[in-house]
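STRUCTURE:
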């Protein structure tokens, strides 16, 4: 298996990024009165997926 040069080359990160984009598209249509009740937590949780992957990649990287 070939070693990746960046975390963005990881399929799991790419899938997570697509998920983040979808979450943003969907939550854009939520009612304004639930923006902080639902929209913000959904978005923060989705972003944390790719953020965690990139942080873990950097910790395991030897460069």
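SEQUENCE:
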């Amino acid at each position: 298996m070939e070693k990746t040069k960046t975390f963005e080359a990881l399929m799991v990160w790419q899938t997570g990024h697509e998920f983040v984009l979808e979450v943003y598209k969907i939550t854009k249509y939520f009612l304004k009165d639930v923006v902080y009740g639902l929209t913000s937590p959904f978005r923060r949780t989705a972003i944390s997926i790719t953020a965690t992957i990139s942080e873990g990649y950097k910790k395991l990287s030897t460069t």
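REMARK: Helices lie at 11-27, 35-60.
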